[in-house]
Amino acid sequence: MIVAERKSLEQIEAMIEGMEKILVAGCGTCVAVCMAGGEKEVELLAAQLRMKAKKDGKERIVDEVTLTRQCDKEYLDQIAKYIDEYDVVISTACGAGVQFLAERYDGHLVLPALNTLFIGVAEGPGEWSQKCMACADCILDQTGGICPMTICAKNSLNGPCGGTNHGKCEVDDSKDCAWTLIYRRLEKLGRLDYMRKPQPPKDYSVMTKPRKHTHQAFTEAQQDEE
Amino acid sequence: MSEPQADNPSEPFEPKVVAFCCTYCAYTAGDLAGSMRLEYAPNVRIVKILCSGKIDAVLLLKAFEDGADAVYVAGCAIGDCHFLEGNLRALRTVAHTKRLLAEVGLEPERLEFFHIPASAGPLFAQRATEMTERARELGPNPLRGTAHKPAGSKLTRDQDAHPPLPEAKLGRRIRHAERVAGGTGGKR
User: Fold this and answer.
1) pLDDT at A10 (0 to 100)
2) Residues of A whose CB is below 8 A from B103
3) What are the sequence ranges of the domains in chain B?
4) In sequence order, which residues have a C-beta less than 8 Å from that of residue B13 and are 6 or more positions away?
5) Which among B65, B105, B173 is the nearest to A47, CB-wise?
6) Contact A67 B157 (CB under 8 A)
7) Binary contact (B170, A62; C-beta < 8 A)
């Protein structure tokens, strides 16, 4: 899941300075689960924006809508009939959603309400941690299911650096050393021999951005026909 | 019940206080306070909720947006929640909502959480009066005057439809697809 957090009200207020008709557009997928930009958070942000304006004596109308997803075109079309009424749309989607909405309605101002943080998992209520950095070449099979690209501060792929300190990282001692975790996991799995297997140098060329991806079924069938 | 006339500037300020009370403890304590014929501030409007854990930041903000001068959530004592941890959730919700209020520029002290056991009739009365006094000290909610001014709402959104049917296209083959009517997806 993509994890995000809401910008401060002060930052959002600064972005919409002088605008009167505002639409807060939520996204019902990842950011709803991480309590940053779903229907409820849209209600909260819209209520805050309305209250702030009333308190400061500003004219402002804030409407709310939450789309199923902002990363699929068909859902974006649902606000086509409303959007002309607004000076600005504040999207509480991740960065991808904000851009897709801005692209779909390129004559309108679309602003982000969230800071997109990482791809991660829920550790407990209200707590998430990063697990994957989308390196486009997964090696979790070799590392006992723990990602050294994400967990290790130095992206070290062939064992720990000299800075491992009783299972903690020298860069930040509140963080675990990825390779200590990997060693323990492989030990538990009886696969410590994996530690001896060198990883080839990481191919960073597959990580260039912006990346594009077409599902094989769509490329191959198309080529066969043509 | 006659409404206090605080919206009129010539009248003295009478706070409007909203109390979200859990049905098992705080509301029962309210009943007891009545049975005991205790006197407490008449400014408190009680909203009965099944569990204080049901309270939501959206509801609390809405109360302030609609002009409440103070709001409190009253739930069971720690460990006494009928649903085990509802009051603990409410504590977290109230703390979070206080931060949201502060962001807007309202005093977070206008919102509070109280533990009021079912047997504590006098405590119920005391809290009601205490919160009313606090609202009196803080003065009227600055949003009171504009509470009824429309400032936007939730838009109605269409049900998610099937994606629009594209030309079914595979290489040189093109077929103009049709959706078969019936079921739930025929509307388009």
Assistant:
1) 95
2) 8-10, 48
3) 17-138
4) B6, B136, B139, B140
5) B65
6) yes
7) no
**CATH number of the domain located at residue range(s) B17-138 in this protein:** 3.40.50
The residue of chain A nearest to residue B163, with distances taken between CA atoms, is A74
Q: Which of chain A's residues have a Cβ under 8 Å away from the Cβ of B142?
A: 54-55
Residues A61 and A104 in one domain: yes
Cβ <8 Å between B146 and A54 = yes
Where would I find the beta strands (DSSP E) of A92-185? 110-112, 114-124, 127-132
Cα A213 from Cα A142, distance rounded (Å): 25
At A226 the pLDDT is 65
User: Can you give the CATH number for the domain in which A77 is found?
Assistant: 3.40.50.2300
Q: What is the pLDDT of residues A132-165, one digit of tens each?
A: 999 999 999 999 999 999 999 999 999 999 999 9
Among the partner-chain residues A52, A66, A67, the one whose CB lies closest to the CB of B104 is A52
Q: Would you say residue B186 has pLDDT above 50?
A: no
Does pLDDT of A218 surpass 50? yes
Q: Is B102 on the interface with A (CB under 8 A)?
A: no
Does some domain include residue A218? Answer: no
Burial profile A82-91: b = 16 or more Cβ within 10 angstroms, e = fewer: bbeebebbbb
Residue B127: exposure state from Cβ atoms within 10 A (0-12, 13-18, ≥19): buried
- Based on the fold, state whether residues A185 and A79 are members of the same structural domain: no
- Of A218 and B113, the one with more pLDDT: B113
